[in-house]
Design brief:
With 350 residues, the chain is of the alpha+beta class. A 3-stranded antiparallel beta sheet has the order 2-1-5, with no helix packed on it. It has a 3-stranded antiparallel beta sheet with strand order 6-7-8. It is built from 9 helices and 12 strands. The protein is elongated, with a radius of gyration of 30 Å.
């Protein structure tokens, strides 16, 4: 219908904020404002000043030279970030009802309702749509989803997720707690340091290998930096643990950690250790926190829980099993012999 939106959908807002898939945001400004102002007989200079006002204030309300009688022309589905006017949600229903008699099928359009819409408002909207003869109706209440593709910019802040909104980096304070862990993989020693936020969640990692200046040391330093930026930008630790655990490359081999007997690579060890420390015990830590215990009592209980988990780990993963002669993964008992769950090799049994 020669509009800046699809079908009879009214514009969401003159200035919208679009959440990008890869993180970050993009500001979108309606491209038909200029032509609309031109048809309303505004001069080029007046149009330029009005557009500059919209770009700066994200609303047309209060723009210079704009006549109050022309304000309804620019009303949108959502209230502007710094404005008050918008199309009432029942206006969407009437727009659909005006077009429905000319269509054989239903109309693909969402009725946008404000955040303060109640269950009764939604109920009455469905009843009104039925009375007006609409064949279908879809309703969306603003802010109902944690994230939505388009918004007026009022919903974007740093507090929506624990580690910061995607694309908005949440840096650690200048003075922060950190944990340093020494590891050895196939004779290659290294140190893993994890910087933590105030709530104890990881926000950065540093990996130092024994041979400073080597290729492995340089690559791990760059790798740790990229992971740190991702954690501070809102990428969940669970995503990294699931992605990098069990990746295979040299160096690999036995470790000095009783909870991770065999590591397939440095990355495999690092993220399995991070997952074991920050993900596996999160539920237990929240339980002890609610009991009002002292830090010493919490540490004692946490150590006891880890000892019990170590015994369970040994039983479930059968640490007496040898490494696979084909791929190096730990084998599991299969009758009186052993089999490899990675490559399928066996130690004699079929």
């Amino acid at each position: 219908m020669d509009c800046d939106t699809t079908g009879i959908e009214p514009e969401l807002a003159l200035v919208k904020t679009k959440s990008m898939v890869g993180g970050g945001f993009m500001k979108l400004v309606n491209q038909t404002i200029s032509s609309a102002l031109d048809r309303l007989d505004y001069t080029e200079q007046q149009i330029k000043e009005i557009l500059d006002f919209i770009d700066e204030n994200e609303t047309i309300e209060g723009a210079p030279h704009l006549k109050s009688a022309h304000l309804p022309v620019f009303d949108c589905s959502f209230k502007a970030k710094n404005g008050k006017r918008f199309i009432p949600y029942m206006g969407h229903v009437r727009m659909m009802a005006a077009v429905q008699p000319f269509l054989s099928g239903a109309i693909s359009k969402t009725v946008n309702m404000p955040k303060d819409a109640t269950a009764e408002d939604i109920y009455q909207t469905y009843i009104k749509a039925w009375k007006l003869g609409l064949k279908a109706i879809a309703i969306y209440r603003d802010g109902s989803k944690r994230t939505q593709p388009l918004s007026t910019g009022t919903e974007i802040d740093d507090s929506r997720v624990p580690q910061g909104q995607r694309g908005i980096r949440r840096r650690l304070p200048d003075e922060r707690n950190a944990v340093t862990h020494k590891f050895s993989i196939g004779g290659h020693e290294g140190y893993l340091t994890v910087g933590e936020y105030e709530d104890g969640t990881p926000g950065e990692i540093f990996v130092t290998m024994a041979k400073e200046g080597s290729v492995v040391s340089g690559l791990m330093d760059c790798f740790a930096t990229s992971i740190s930026i991702g954690l501070q930008s809102g990428v969940p630790l669970e995503t990294y643990v699931g992605k990098f655990s069990h990746t295979r490359f040299e160096p690999y081999g036995y470790t000095n950690n009783p909870r991770i007997r065999m590591a397939k690579s440095i990355a495999d060890y690092i993220f399995r250790w991070l997952g074991d420390r920050y993900l596996c015990d999160s539920d237990k830590q929240s339980e002890t926190k609610s009991l009002g215990m002292t830090n010493v009592e919490k540490q004692n209980i946490a150590q006891q829980l880890k000892d019990n988990e170590s015994e369970k780990y040994s039983f479930e993963h059968q640490e007496d099993a040898p490494p696979c002669p084909e791929c190096g993964s730990m084998m599991v008992r299969n009758g009186s012999c052993y089999k490899c769950l990675t490559c399928g090799a066996t130690s004699g049994c079929s």
